[in-house]
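Can you give me the bound-state structure? Components:
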Amino acid sequence: MGGRKKTLLGMAALMLLTAPLAAQSWAAEGPGTVELGSLANYYSPVTFDHAMHTGVAASCADCHHHTTGLAPTNPSCARCHKAGEQTSSVACKSCHSDQRFSAENLAKIEGNPQLYHKGKPGLKGAYHQKCLGCHTTMGGPTGCQDCHTRNDKGDAFFNSGKYAPAPSASAGHEGGH
Amino acid sequence: MKKLNRRSFLKGGLAGGAAIAAVGTSKQAAAGTHNFGGYPDSMGVLVDLTKCVGCRTCEAACNKEQGLPVPDKPFDDPSVFEEKREGGLPRRTSEKAYTVVQKYDVPGREHPLFRKVQCNHCNEPACLTSCFVNAYKKTPEGAVIYDKTVCVGCRTCMVACPFYIPAYSYSSPTNPVIKKCIMCYDTRLKFGRPPACVEACPQEVMTFGKRKDLLKLAHQRISEKPDAYIDHVYGETEVGGTAWMYLSDVPFEKIGYDTHLGKEPIISYVKEFLGMVPMVLTIWPALFTGFHLLSNRKDALKNEDNKS
Amino acid sequence: MNSLKSQGFAPVVSHLKKDGSEWTVKEKIMLGLSPKEYWAVQRRNPFNWVLWVIYAVGLPILVGRFIFGLGWVTHSSYDYPWGLFLGWGLFTMVPLSASGFMMGTTVELFGRKDFKPIERLGLLNGLLGYLFAVMFLQVDLGQPWRLIYPMFVSLGPAAVLFLVAWHVATYLSCQVAELVPAFSEWMGFPKAKKFIKSIVLGLTIAGIILSTLHQGALGALFTYAPGKVHPLWYSSPFQWLHFFVSAVFAGLSMLIVVSTLTKWFMRWRCDENYLNNLSKLTLGLAKGASMALITYLVIKIIGIAHDNNWAYLLTGWGQWYMFEILVGVILPLIFYTMAVRNSNASLARFAAILAVFGIALNRLNTALIAFNWQLYREIPHWRELVIVITVYATYIVVYRAVLARMPILYTWKEKK
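Here's the bound-state model for the whole set.
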């Protein structure tokens, strides 16, 4: 082989070898912020600081399970997912249904005997269990309004704020025991 | 005494028998050892107490879905957890609240345990078996619902419920009725939709599905994380099994659950008497007629002697 | 009235006045006195002054219960749905009214004609007791206007209360029928009396069947709450038997108590047949009651043995239980036995008071005091107590009114 060809081959090899590393470092950035608003009802959408979380998470798999192509660290999960299968979308809502308990979704779960994760939480549950799960152990916002402010509809729903009931002297004395 | 001749005996017996036949409708099938166990495809709810953070969104959702009165305090007010009723007991369901969340400070547990309380929709409900106007119904979907148009207000169901769930609207002079969770049957369950509290819960503490699937899920959760759960699904067998079942990381007796309820539905304790009813109705007439004839033997003999 | 009699007043005992003319119904209601005399007697009676006070306080509160709802007269407890209206009015008054079927059975079925002088008092005690138990029920029910629902609108036949409802309704009819002879004598309807006499055996047997079942059923109601009643007062297989057997001596003892009260306070109304036989009959009732008491004591012990609840006797609740058994069962048993042996009617009367107290204590324990034993104790609302006193006072008023008029304590002299 000629000298020039050798250099080209060497560069190609080097690029091939470093490609995964490059891919890794690109994926570690991801979006700066993500607007999580598909479930917004009583609260405003959540402006999620993705960039900050990539700094505090040990691995993408901490939140995205195996979907970014990394093997999960939890040995229970790694039992089956040690290959770290990458999926086309890593967004939570692509796997966690926002209609978790609809008759349709329940039928889908029941009708799939191969499905192992029959107890996979819906989108709202996935968000809160994942976020609050980490925040309670590692320190982070845990109050409802720390992450999403309640809107007027929410205030009415909770009978709070301007919808709060007038304090009543007889409260608690009309039975209730 | 008037001579007991056949005619007067038959007249008396017939009159008595007619009276008894009219009330002989309490005949019960003899107790079998086979319990109902619920309809095969009925729904249920698995409540995973390890996930509840005490936000009370479920209480707010129930309040709105069931059109309940404005609460005494906002639903985001955590001071309700400190309210104690008589005997230092925690808050319970009331005529204004079909579900409440209780807070338990557990020594050694970093955060308090929160427990959601509502009707457990038993497979063989005590309220239903005790109701003499048939106001309760266990629907095939799994909910135990109540018909307020026939309720007389005897409140036996409140005595019977081992979980102390039914409340009564004592405040109403003209239409007091039982108040309890109906699993959102009228507005959701009969259309295949989950109850409002299940849908509202941000932490997905509650999983809605077929009861038989939920049991599998519950045991799967326990076996996958044996250190995270007590190895018991409360409601799996208690009082014949309930549609609402619970997982916990704290022993159930420490967080307000009655763990001495046994596996038999409440009706099992009543069946022994109910079985006696047709026995008495059948045996007593002959027995006491016999007593009467035997005790009047002397008079009867004397009358015969007088006649001859 | 007693003092009037000592002054020569002769109470109404037949259709005819001294001059041979017939009493009118109004005159019979006025006890043969002129209205002026009648009301003067009522005003002089100190017991009536007590009644006025009771009604002055109690009637507004009773009416208020229906205007403002149960929440106004109770603590609106969800943990303790039943209070004194049922605890006293139903669970205590019904066994004390068991004298109806006891006397009917004794005289008509077993042919013990020697008990005839007291038979009608036993029947009346039964009828009024059940009638007022239903009154108490109507006060307690959330929607008393729906009382007939379990019979005609929506039936729940699997429930014990269904049986109670049907039986009490039918049994009340039986008891009314059994008292028709007394009423028809007083009013002058001989055909009614004749008809009842022809079916009296059937009525009596129906009465025994119905009483066995509903006395037992009242006990069986508590088997719906196996964990809520303290184990010493609870027995899943035997609860109904405990309630039924105790009803036997409850009815007999209440009859002794009431007959004693008539002897003391309504002597003017009692005829010689009644008064001369009363002590002997009291001892006869005492015999029956003592047999029921010893039976009850043994089946209560069997109940403890069956569930192996001996250890509970050593607790505070155990001491309370033993107090109830001692004062309500053992002492009456001993005194009744001694009374019969020594022909001491007064001792039997004292035993009867203890037995009645014991029944009340047992029923109140089962329904209220030892109920929810693992929770907290609930003291009923004071308005509940006032209403109970008011309705019970009405029961006494009606009782007295009937005894003063109808041939219960005296024999009616039929016109020839």
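A couple of observations. The interface with chain C takes residues 174-177 of chain A (CB under 8 Å). The first strand of chain A starts at residue 33 and ends at 36.
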